[in-house]
Each structure stands twice: as structure tokens, then as C-alpha cells.
Amino acid sequence: MKLRRTLLLCLAFSTAAALSAPARQAIAAEPGRVYQFSPVNQYGIELTASYWNPIINYVSEKTGLQLRLKIGRTSADTTAYVLAKEVDFVFTNHLFSPERDKLGWRTLARRNTPPIYGQIVVLADSPIRKLEQLADQSVAFPGPEALVAYKYTYAHLLNEKVPVQVNFSGNHDGAFAQLLSGKAQAVGANSQLAEGWSKREGKPLRVLWQSEALHDLALMVAKHVPEEDAKAIQRAFVGMAQDPKGIKVLHSASELVKLPASTVFISSNGSEYAAYRNFYQTAPVSLR
């Protein structure tokens, strides 16, 4: 197997034999079709896989379609898969720029989590209390594709004329590892992930700045996926909230990454993501 500095994690499930023919037809037109699913690397690879595998297992069982988890070593690597048209479904906010809008990805659902914010944070016991104190210091970011954690936060630093040393760490866990080790003095973060890391690790954080409120990432489908399969996948994700087994899977996954216990997937037509698209109208050219 070729390693392109990426890791392919696959989980395929086929339950056609366990479902009655009418049930299979009601959920998906062609059971057994294989699709690649690439969520952005919000956590380390192991934790990302541990969160998503039970969820796509459930969706595969419900639809008879086989979802395979495909993630790269970093969030930028995973997005590269998407841009290379190697995947069919994504969980991301990396596709709302004017150029990527043209690729035809369509929003199916999102999580009903509280609003998220781009934040610049330091450890609670850090002597740094103002953004100006970060001048010429190292600031860790998940990666260059991280819209909320990098582009929103770094745009603010540029607008405030606070020069920093940009340190890309691959994902949020990597960025916070840099902070703990002292190699970085601050982190540009997604507030949801900063809060989850703080709870998992027992390390309180201080917020120096945060952006406007934004919606959580989007579950999206590529334009080449047949409509009946896209709808089947959407129904399965959204239907987890009404199925005791689905609720159990979501509760376990949410506890793992410290999301609210009430977190479920809800339908979306993408209109909630106007703020992301508006960002690119005024962002520094280097971040568009």
C-alpha cells in the first residue's frame, strides 16, 4: 500500500441480508454501493476515527450503503482528497469559498451544537492577557485549511497588525500539544474543540479574542452521488435522533470528544453558512 503521508481508515458495512427487501428499497435504491466519507481532522487521527466509525457503521446498517472513512494525516491532506474528487461525502467547512462553491457540493445536514467561534486562546495561567503581547510569538493553528481556527483568527491578527510566527500542527490536538510544551504561546482554535480539549485534559484556557457566532460544520454530498443515495444518507444521519440505537451511538461519540449530550444531526439546506461565504468577501487576500 502506498503511503502518501496520509492514512486511509476504512470501515465498510453491508447489511442488505439483514433487511427485508421492502425496507431496503425504502431507504436506498441500490444497497451495497460504496462511498468514501471524509470528515476534516478536528482531532488526532485515532480520536477522529473513534468518533466517526460508530456513526458511519450505524448509517451503513440503516441504508445498506457502505461508507468508508477516508482521512489524511492532517486536515489539509483530507481536504486535498476532497479537491481531488476522491470522496463522496464530507463533514467540513472548507468548501464555502467562491472557487470551491463551483465544485457543486451540497449541504445535507449539520449538528445541532451551540454556536462555534474562532478563538485565540492561551493557558489560563499564562502571563499573556492581551493580543498585543503575542507580537512576534509562536501561535499554533490546526492547519492552513482550518477556516474557523486559522483563517478567522489569523485574519484578525493581521487586521490588528499583530505579527506572529505561524505554526501549523495538523489538527487541534497537535496545536494544543504545542501550547502545553511551550513551543507555542497561543492557539488559534474552534471554540467547540478548545472547550472539548480543555475538558478532556483538565487544562483551563483563557480566551483573548473570539469571532462572531458561527454554525458547526456541514455534512455535504458531491454532485455525482445519485439523489436517492444522498437522501438515504441524509435520512439515516438525521434519523439517529429518533432511534434509540442511534441516540446511544451519538451519546457515546459525543462523550468521547466532550460534545453536549444532546448533540444530533439535523437537516440543512446550507443557508446557515452565509457567514462563512461572507468571510471571503472581506478576508485578507492571502486567506481567501
Question: How would you summarize the topology of this molecule?
Answer:
Layout: E1 6-7, H1 21-27, E2 34-39, H2 45-63, E3 66-69, E4 71-72, H3 75-83, E5 89-92, H4 98-101, E6 106-111, E7 118-123, E8 138-141, H5 147-159, E9 165-168, H6 172-181, E10 186-190, H7 191-201, E11 205-210, E12 218-221, H8 227-239, H9 244-257, E13 265-267, H10 274-282
Parallel strand pairs: 2-3, 2-5, 8-9, 8-10
Antiparallel strand pairs: 1-4, 5-12, 6-12, 6-13, 7-10, 7-11
Helix pairs in contact: 2-8, 2-9
Protein name: Phosphate/phosphite/phosphonate ABC transporter substrate-binding protein
Pfam family, one: Phosphonate-bd
Keywords: Signal
Short description:
By secondary structure, the chain is of the alpha/beta class. It is 38% helix and 19% strand.
Model regions low in confidence, pLDDT < 50 over at least 5 residues? 1-29
How do the helices and strands follow one another from N- to C-terminus? EHEHEEHEHEEEHEHEHEEHHEH
Q: Classify the fold: give the CATH topology of the largest domain.
A: D-Maltodextrin-Binding Protein, domain 2
Q: Name the CATH homologous superfamily of the largest domain.
A: Periplasmic binding protein-like II
CATH architecture of the largest domain: 3-Layer(aba) Sandwich
In whole angstroms, the N-to-C terminal distance is 35 Å
Name the average pLDDT: 90
Oligomeric state: single chain
Helix content: 25-40%
Q: Give the helix tally.
A: 10
User: What is the top-level CATH class of the largest domain?
Assistant: Alpha Beta
- Please state the overall shape, judged from the principal axes of the Cα atoms: globular
Radius of gyration using CA atoms only: 19 Å
Q: Give the strand tally.
A: 13
Helix- and strand-based class? alpha/beta
